[in-house]
Prior knowledge:
The protein is α/β, with parallel strands linked by helices. The chain has helices spanning about 15-20, 25-45, 65-80, 85-90, 105-115, 135-145, 155-160, 205-215, and strands spanning about 5-10, 50-55, 90-95, 125-130, 170-175, 195.
Amino acid sequence: MAELVHLGIIMDGNGRWAKKRNLPRAAGHLEGLKSLKKVIKGAIDEDIKYLTVYCFSTENWKRPEAEVKYLMALFTNKIYGEIKTISNLGVQIRLLGNRSGLPEAALKALDRTVEETKENNKLVLQLAINYGGYDEIIRAVNQLIKDGVSEVTVPLIRSKFDNPDIPPVDFIVRSAGEERLSNFLLFDSAYSELGFYDRLWPDWDEEMIKTVKQDFLKRDRRFGGLS
Ligand code: FPP
């Protein structure tokens, strides 16, 4: 039977949620952070061990400067601000993505969060920030070239990822109706299941993770073989 160990989420629809309410897009992102907290609790309840959330892509720099600044401020102030709650829940924070280009203050706050939660073991929450699937693969391969490797393999490439100890994602879900991966976990999604849900990200909660898990359990995973 399929086991949901690692769930990946493309948190989409914050802007649309805000627009529907005549609010600025930033209000949607702030509400999105609230639903992330509920989803983390839901993931723990459902015994999911790894949760990877797409917070900011390598392409999101194209957004208006004010929106980028707002999201960077969230990463700088809000995550470490929740350190007590995060630790009480037993959540270990890990970072996924390209550090270069991120503001110093954000990196400092994020690194501190990672350091102070490293002993927690209920759930590993991987924050994909300035993350892109192409970038992840290119960085890994360039590192192998630097190391003098003349022929790559799947395990060798994976070994140079930011968190090679985290198993490949089992189920990638996306909120807000669009059906694409948008450069998320390109390498590790080779055999992951995909799920698309119409509900906008700020409307997600613990219950939604129950639904997601139930949907996943109906899947027949064959990894190219026969069931
Ligand atoms: C996509 O919705 C959402 C993002 C680019 C940002 C995701 C970030 C959060 C949910 C906040 C998480 C914060 C922390 C501190 C971890 P969109 O803006 O593309 O929505 P739209 O497609 O409706 O415009």
